[in-house]
Design brief:
75% of the residues lie in helices and 0% in strands. With 845 residues, the protein is mostly helical. Strands 1-2 form a two-stranded parallel ribbon. Helix 33 packs antiparallel against helix 34. It is extended. One of its GO terms (molecular function) is protein phosphatase regulator activity. Keywords: Coiled coil, Cytoplasm, Phosphoprotein, Repeat.
Length: 845
């Protein structure tokens, strides 16, 4: 033991120095292998290649005189050489590779097999050229002494067979196969022959297979080595598909029956699995007389003498039971069901129901086997529901379902969680019977189980709510009483773990809850939890998942008070939060709101808070906002949101003028170009309303104008009549006597004094009104006729004395005109009254 070195007190005594020396010696021992691994100058010289050589010349040189690692690199680079220069590669490089492979090691052989397969897949050459150049090399290396190398070349050959023409396969592969499959050949050669024959069965017609391949198949099924018999037995499925139903019944089925009784357990297992896979090719007689007795013997021996088949039997049991369903008697049906129940609890209980005390004495291998059996039973549970009929689930299978969901091993519960949705679909209206197991799996301690269940959680919950007897909105929560605590527990367990992907997936699936439970339950148990996750969680995908789910909850919340409270918290705690990270999440949330809500909702509550972030002190926030601006603008409608558009344009101008960060400014300029190309949607309804309002205003004005003109037209018509009556009376050249003149004169005076003044006042008002309202002055047809029929010379002189563009006098000229007309009328009245008084005096005298 070396003394403890304390650096605070340096001790340079002799013992400590020796300790240091020994430590240094240990370090030199560690360094020795590193020094030995370095290349010597001679080795470096041998690895050096002339740089002026072409790729083909370098490849030939390295394959001829280079080291193994260099030759392997050339073989790995063969697909590249074939793409660049296929002719020279086939002529110069490939023959060298063929020579080297005879003495090459395992690494180069495996690399060559992969490269040859890559050349085939890339179709660098035609299939004819490939078969001529590469196929012989593949066939030569099939019987390599290393099993791994042989299998690699075999996989390449099987892929090549798919692309080769029939004639090439017959001459190059099938004919040599006859000799390679003989008993005198090596074990590896016979195993390769078995797999090749299984591949060839799909390439030729049935009569060729019967004549040339089936004799070899029978021979290999009787091979002395159990590995060959097992390999050939597994190829019988492919051969049966190639030869058809009739030959399968007469040739393949007898071989399978014989192999099922083989002394080798692996041979019996292969025979059993092949028999199950070929069930569809057998008719009812073959199933009842041949297959069913064979399967029954397998089941009976599996617990007693042949446990090796137990795992495979449990895996294929569901397919086997449904495949033989039509030929089962009620007794056989019950027997297979009991056999399944027994397998489902294998390793947990004895037949009497007590705990197995020998479980502790079992080997680890047996425990793994029993776990695999129970896992396979969980896998086959949906198939067993079909077997017993979903109506009989509670009576026949519920106890097994309960045991599998509470199994102590995680793989078993994981498999049940995966198949839970299939079980729920099969039960349909009876799905409520398994709601307790749903709660149990949600509360499972393993996150793997929870992750498997959550994949179809929305569908399962929907079936639970709508498929059960207690359907209806009022019984949403009552149908699964413990659902909400189970869901919250699952989320909390996922949140405290390091598996954030499971947490993200869970939050995404929780978006289905508005269809499952009431809005109040979501508000008090889940909505605020989502907001907390956004504020406190450190994983971005989890925060985004919580933000989107929160928006979904908000979307389906119909209570305005709760809505406003959540919106206020989003704006205050995220949009106006102290952490720039929260402000970034606010923009993510706004993006989800634009996706889930209407445009008007976003504009009403979030448009202006988003624009406020243009003044954010952190460049990343402004940058993210710039990326979001096109979506923000797409929510606007004109003319409803005209003021918001002005705010948006103002913010963009400020960013262009005041932004100092180069990256942000670049994005702002790019965003401005994108915004300029965008077209804002027009609110047709709002435009229609505004049009109607404008039409209403103009209609009111037009109605008033029309009413005024109507009154004016009436007055002008009266004036016209008075003028037409007075003018002929005054200009008449004939007199019928003094009394007629007196009466006409009096009527004329009285008519003119009563009707002329109001008309003048109306005409005086018209220009003033038209100029005040801004409309162009117009006179009706009746008014025009009245003006044109007017015979007063003074009126004509005044009207023509105005500007040539004006057809009618101005208000001041009309006033002067009407005043002079009034004065003339008054003078006429006075002279007429004076004349009448003189005449009366003469008549009286």
């Amino acid at each position: 033991m070396h003394p403890i070195i304390i650096f605070s007190k340096m001790d340079f005594s002799q013992s400590n120095l020796f300790g240091y020396i020994e430590d240094l010696q240990e370090l030199t021992i560690i360094e020795r292998p590193v020094r030995r691994s370095l290349k010597t100058p001679e080795e470096i010289e041998r690895l050096t290649v002339d740089e002026e050589l072409s790729d083909i010349e370098r490849a030939v040189y390295l394959l001829s005189s280079g080291q193994d690692i260099q030759g392997t690199s050339v073989v790995a680079n063969l697909p590249v050489l074939m793409r660049q220069n296929p002719a020279d590669t086939l002529r110069r490089v490939l023959p060298k590779i063929r020579e080297v492979l005879h003495i090459a090691g395992v690494e180069m052989q495996l690399t060559a097999a992969v490269s040859f397969l890559t050349v085939l897949q890339e179709e660098s050459v035609s299939i004819h050229t490939y078969s001529h150049s590469f196929l012989h090399i593949i066939l030569q290396n099939l019987e390599h002494r290393d099993a791994g190398v042989s299998n690699a070349w075999l996989e390449t050959l099987l892929a090549v067979i798919e692309a080769l023409p029939k004639e090439t396969i017959r001459h190059e592969i099938l004919n040599p196969l006859v000799s390679k499959a003989q008993l005198s050949q090596t074990l590896q050669s016979r195993l390769v022959s078995c797999k090749i024959m299984g591949k060839l069965a799909n390439k030729f017609e049935a009569h060729i297979i019967k004549r040339e391949i089936l004799p070899l198949v029978k021979s290999l099924c009787q091979d002395v080595e159990y590995e060959v018999r097992t390999c050939m037995c597994r190829q019988l499925e492919h051969i049966a598909q190639g030869i058809g139903t009739e030959l399968t019944k007469t040739v393949v089925l007898p071989e399978l029956i014989e192999l099922a009784r083989d002394e080798g357990s692996s041979v019996r297992l292969a025979a059993f699995e092949t028999l199950v896979n070929l069930l569809d090719m057998f008719d009812a007689d073959d199933r009842s007389q041949t297959v069913l007795p064979l399967v029954k013997s397998f089941c009976e021996k599996s617990f007693k003498a042949d446990e090796s088949i137990l795992v495979s039997l449990s895996f294929h049991l569901g397919k086997l039971c449904n495949g033989l369903y039509g030929i089962f008697t009620p007794e056989q049906h019950l027997r297979f069901l009991e056999f399944y129940k027994k397998l489902s609890t294998l390793g947990l209980q004895q037949e009497n129901g007590h705990n197995d005390n020998q479980l502790q004495l079992q080997t680890l291998e047996q425990e793994k086997k029993y776990i695999s059996v129970r896992k396979n039973c969980a896998y086959n549970f949906p198939a067993m529901i079909v077997f017993v009929d979903p109506k009989n689930f509670h009576l026949e299978l519920y106890s097994i379902f309960f045991c599998l969901c509470h199994d102590p091993e995680v793989p078993v519960r994981y498999t049940m969680a995966i198949s839970f949705y299939e079980v729920a679909k099969l039960l349909n209206s009876g799905v409520y019977a398994i709601h307790k197991e749903l709660v149990t799996l949600l509360q499972d301690e393993s996150l793997e189980v929870l992750d498997a269940l959550v994949g179809h959680l929305p569908e399962i919950l929907e079936l639970m709510i709508n498929g059960g007897e207690n359907s209806g909105s009022e019984s949403k929560l009552l149908s699964i009483p413990d659902l909400i605590p189970a869901l919250t527990t699952a989320e909390q367990r996922a949140a405290t773990s390091l598996k954030w992907r499971t947490h993200e997936k869970l939050l995404q699936k929780y978006a289905c809850l508005p269809h499952i439970i009431s809005s109040d339950q979501i508000y008090y148990r889940f909505l605020h939890r989502m907001l907390t996750i956004i504020l406190t969680n450190n994983v971005l995908p989890v925060q985004k998942a919580a933000a989107r789910t929160l928006c979904v909850y908000l979307r389906y919340n119909r209570k305005q008070e709760q809505r406003h409270e959540v919106i206020q918290k989003l704006i205050e705690q995220l949009g106006q939060g102290k952490s720039y990270w929260n402000r970034l999440r606010f923009l993510d949330t706004c993006e989800f709101i634009m996706e889930l809500f209407s445009k008007s909702f976003f504009c009403k509550y979030f448009f202006l808070p988003v624009l406020e972030l243009t003044h954010d002190p952190v460049a990343n926030v402004r940058m993210k906002l710039c990326y979001l601006l096109p979506k923000v603008k797409s929510t606007l409608k004109i003319p409803t949101d005209k003021h918001l558009l002005q705010q948006l344009e103002l913010c963009i101008r400020k960013l262009l003028c005041q932004e100092k960060d180069k990256d942000v400014l670049t994005i702002v300029k790019r965003t401005v170009l994108e915004l300029d190309r965008m077209e804002i949607s027009v609110d047709a309804e709002q435009l229609e309303k505004e049009k109607q309002q404008n039409e209403g205003r103009s209609a009111n004005v037009n109605d008033k104008m029309f009413e005024k003109k109507r009154r004016d037209s009436k007055t002008s018509s009266v004036l016209t009549k008075s003028i037409t009556l007075s003018v002929p009376g005054s200009s008449s050249g004939t007199s019928t006597g003094k009394e007629d003149k007196k009466s006409k004169l009096v009527r004329s005076q009285s008519f003119s004094t009563q009707a002329l003044h109001p008309k003048y006042s109306n005409i005086d008002k018209c220009p003033n009104k038209s100029s005040a309202t801004g409309y162009t002055s117009s006179v009706s047809g009746m008014g025009k006729s009245c003006m044109l029929s007017f015979s007063d010379d003074s009126f004509r002189s005044h009207s023509t004395g105005n500007s040539g563009n004006s057809a009618f006098p101005s208000s001041s000229s009309s006033r002067n005109l009407f005043n002079s007309a009034d004065q003339k009328n008054n003078g006429n009245k006075e002279s007429q009254s004076r004349k009448m008084s003189i005449k009366n005096r003469k008549s009286n005298s």
